[in-house]
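Support reply, case 0932

Customer input (verbatim):
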Amino acid sequence: MRGRPAPKRTIVVDGKPLPEVLDEAMVHAVVHGFYDDIREDDLLGPIFTGHIAAQDWPVHLGKMCDFWSATLLRTDRYEGRPLSPHLAIPELQEKHFHRWLSLFRQTVERLCPPEVADLFLDRALRIAHSFRLAIAFNRGEDSMRIAPISREALQ
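Our regenerated output:
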């Protein structure tokens, strides 16, 4: 059967069409650039290296590329549950989330055009808030006192 090719699908995120410049190569650059910075960071590096063995980093980076591809490009590559591993890290505190978000912001602002950096950061802020709520709940803490971290609070 012959016919016209299927029209190109427009991806809409938060009610706006996804910028065409955001593609798998940009996701890869953000993920790899971010985790390069994480591993060098005095606060976060020890947590990550304490929970991810050196030989497991390629697998972790692949999962993170799949996660961000699914999150922003709406692919179906990620099938995991990202919260579970974080619940198993007893040393995670507020300062870690602030630093994680600050490094993430620096990475996306360095590597992406502003509208794409905003998409990444908006999603990261939401994810961090949901993780913080779930961790507090899991630890038996009062999650009602946890306010979202704002862009303005990041370094």
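We compared this against your earlier run and they match. Two observations from our side: The beta strands are 12-13, 16-17. The first strand starts at residue 12 and ends at 13. Please reopen the case if you see a mismatch on your end.
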